[in-house]
Specification:
Elements: E1 21-25, H1 29-35, H2 40-57, E2 65-72, H3 80-103, E3 106-111, H4 119-131, E4 138-146, H5 148-164, H6 173-177, E5 190-193, E6 212-215, H7 225-235
Bound molecules: 3-methylbut-3-enyl trihydrogen diphosphate (IPE) (2 copies) and magnesium ion.
The site of one 3-methylbut-3-enyl trihydrogen diphosphate has 10 residues, from α1.
Length: 245
Amino acid sequence: MAWPRGAATKAVAEGTSRPRHVAVIMDGNGRWATERGWPRLVGHRRGAERVKQIVRACPDLGVDWLTIYAFSTENWKRSTEEVLGLMKIFRRYIQREAEEMSGEGVRMRFIGERSRLDRKLQELMASIEARTAGNTRLNLTVAINYGGRDELVRASTRLAERIVRGEVTSPSEADLADCMDTAGHPDPDLVIRTSGETRTSNFLPWQAAYSEYEFTPTLWPDFTPDHLATILDRFGLRDRRFGGA
Ligand code: IPE
Ligand code: IPE
Ligand code: MG
């Protein structure tokens, strides 16, 4: 499929509605590298470079919230070499980006189960969250060791504890939402998956219940701000009814 190249990354059509919150399943790093005869980790490093570019393009494209899927609860099934390599990439990304992002107004947060992650990585995550907490230009949420089902189990446990303590009497959707890792975040308007797979792989099943979806064949390391701008243009043509007539 050929992608029309926008004249500029700001080329979101005027007068159309824009997604405020975009979530991305960044898939295809491994295939991108394998196609070139390179180790999969080369694809992951290229993928991390892409993240930087896409993050920087978001504010100009009218996106206030960007949530990206970096590592799923299922990704531990990969080889030790790949998993350790990915964790090293996350550490470096957070270390290097921390300074720049706090200066650029990006608020960075993480969702997912943290206790299984390396202690040093957990510390870096907590420190960048604290350092960028006052930023408002873009809300960047990174899902690491994230699984929607795992999040629902943890959230249900929290809700049960609140019920036992008498803080919640008849639980509502809002009460459960308040126990999720994403408490206080708006739901994604649009979920994009790269690499041609048309599944959601345990990403935000609760939050994306009414999201629009875009599946693009482009592999994540090839996904540019122009691709994003084109997808955002198309979003404006959608009729979101939320069950209404
Ligand atoms: C996405 O790329 C990154 C992670 C899941 C960590 P993949 O590594 O899944 O790439 P493919 O799907 O094998 O090409
Ligand atoms: C989803 O991609 C997870 C991330 C992008 C982090 P996967 O490559 O792990 O998903 P499956 O295995 O194809 O469903
Ligand atoms: Mg994949």
